[in-house]
């Protein structure tokens, strides 16, 4: 089994699981900037558990993760991450509230012809506009977010940055880009979303 090191974490990789790339490392770095000791953190779609492992290695937090791919769920558990195998929030009790919710969604626009066979498709397939999983996430996230909680969302310029910020606004969030990196065919950004003040009244 291959193991990679990042920050203070050691992460084992596995077959049939998305291998961490620029997006994973960018999100891990952003999460370290936003999370603080004592927070309750939820990561949706943890994959290998890299982001969760990096944050856990540096901070005293209570972290839970979800993952739909059974191979990825096993991989993340082997990396010391508490994982619930479920689709998005389906396996989380609604009375559980989190200070930070992190999501690296499948964000690539994907036609029917571009779908990948097997579980790996869940890591890439964002639907025709790249925003299918993001819309589903935003429909539910407020039910699990503590008052004045924060979401961290990793997306690509291929997903439509302004379009995603518009979706966040529709769901009652302010949004701003807190990290970005240019890649050969796209720009990756981490969007921080916070509940708009008027939504708290």
Annotate the secondary structure layout.
Layout: E1 3-6, E2 9-12, H1 22-34, E3 40-44, H2 50-58, E4 62-67, H3 70-78, E5 83-85, E6 98-103, H4 121-124, H5 132-140, E7 145-156, H6 161-170, E8 173-183, E9 186-195
Parallel strand pairs: 3-4, 3-6, 4-5, 6-7
Antiparallel strand pairs: 1-2, 7-9, 8-9
Helix pairs in contact: 1-2
Describe the structure.
The chain is 27% helix and 30% strand. It starts with a strand and ends in a 6-residue tail after the last strand. It is α/β, with parallel strands linked by helices and 201 residues long. It contains six helices and nine strands. The chain has a single domain, classed as Vaccinia Virus protein VP39 (Rossmann fold), CATH 3.40.50.150. The mean pLDDT is 95. The radius of gyration is 16 Å and the shape is globular.
Number of strands: 9
Q: Radius of gyration over alpha carbons?
A: 16 Å
CATH names the topology as: Rossmann fold
- The CATH H-level homologous superfamily: Vaccinia Virus protein VP39
**Beta fraction:** 25-35%
Can you name the CATH architecture?
Answer: 3-Layer(aba) Sandwich
What would CATH call the class? Alpha Beta
Distance between the termini: 51 Å
Biggest sheet features: 7 strands, mixed
Major sheet strand order? 5-4-3-6-7-9-8
Helix content: 25-40%
Alpha plus pi helix count: 6
Low-pLDDT residue intervals, each spanning 5 or more residues: none
Class by alpha and beta content: alpha/beta
Total domains: 1
């Amino acid at each position: 089994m291959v193991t990679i090191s990042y920050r203070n974490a050691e992460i084992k990789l596995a077959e049939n699981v998305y291998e961490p790339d620029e997006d994973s490392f960018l999100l891990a770095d952003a999460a370290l900037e936003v999370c603080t000791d004592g927070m309750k953190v939820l990561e949706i779609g943890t994959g290998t558990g890299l982001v969760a492992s990096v944050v856990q290695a540096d901070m005293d937090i209570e972290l839970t993760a979800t993952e739909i791919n059974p191979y990825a769920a096993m991989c993340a558990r082997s990396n010391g991450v508490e994982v619930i195998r479920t689709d998005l929030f389906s396996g989380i009790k609604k009375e559980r509230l989190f200070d930070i919710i992190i999501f690296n969604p499948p964000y690539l626009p994907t036609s029917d012809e571009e779908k990948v066979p097997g579980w790996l498709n869940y890591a890439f397939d964002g639907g025709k506009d790249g925003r299918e999983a993001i819309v589903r996430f935003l429909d539910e996230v407020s039910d699990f977010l503590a008052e004045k909680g924060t979401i961290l969302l990793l997306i690509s310029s291929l997903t439509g940055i302004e379009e995603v910020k518009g979706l966040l606004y529709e769901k009652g969030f302010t949004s701003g880009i807190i990290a970005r990196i240019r890649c050969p065919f796209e720009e990756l950004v981490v969007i921080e979303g916070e509940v708009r003040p008027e939504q708290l009244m």
